[in-house]
Amino acid sequence: MGKLGDMANKAKELAKGHPDQADKGVENVERAVDERTGGKYDAQTDKAADAARRSYGGGGTAAGH
Predict the structure, then answer these.
(1) How many other CB atoms are there within 10 angstroms of residue 1's CB atom?
(2) Per-domain residue ranges for the chain?
(3) Which of 37, 17, 47 is nearest to 62 (CA)?
(4) What pLDDT, in 10s, does the model give residues 5-32?
(5) Is the distance from CB of 58 to CB of 27 less than 8 angstroms?
(6) How far apart are CA 28 and CA 11, in angstroms?
(7) Contact predicate 48/30, CB 8 Å
(8) Pick from 20, 30, 35, 44: most CB atoms within 10 A?
(9) Displacement of CA 13 from its chain's centroid (Å)
(10) Where does this protein have compositionally biased stretches of type Basic and acidic residues (predicted)?
């Protein structure tokens, strides 16, 4: 596996160990993307954030969604 895949796996393992912190990070990234795009891709960012949370067992939902 390449370096990017190794980094992704390491990030996933860290997120599994700290799901509350990971949820906050996912929420912040989702919010930043929505702000930069004017909410144009809100449905897509919601789906991506949900997929990210499922990948590490997170359960939080983004505020306002």
Answers:
(1) 8
(2) 20-58
(3) 47
(4) 898 888 889 999 999 999 999 999 999 9
(5) no
(6) 16
(7) yes
(8) 30
(9) 14
(10) 9-53
Is pTM beyond 0.70? Reply is yes
> Locate tokens 């990070």: which residue?
25
Rg of the chain, C-alpha, whole Å: 12
Distance, CA of 38 to chain centre? 19
Tokens standing for residue 52: 């990210």
Task: Write the DSSP string, the chain.
Answer: --HHHHHHHHHHHHHHH-HHHHHHHHHHHHHHHHHHTTTTTHHHHHHHHHHHHHHHT-----TT-
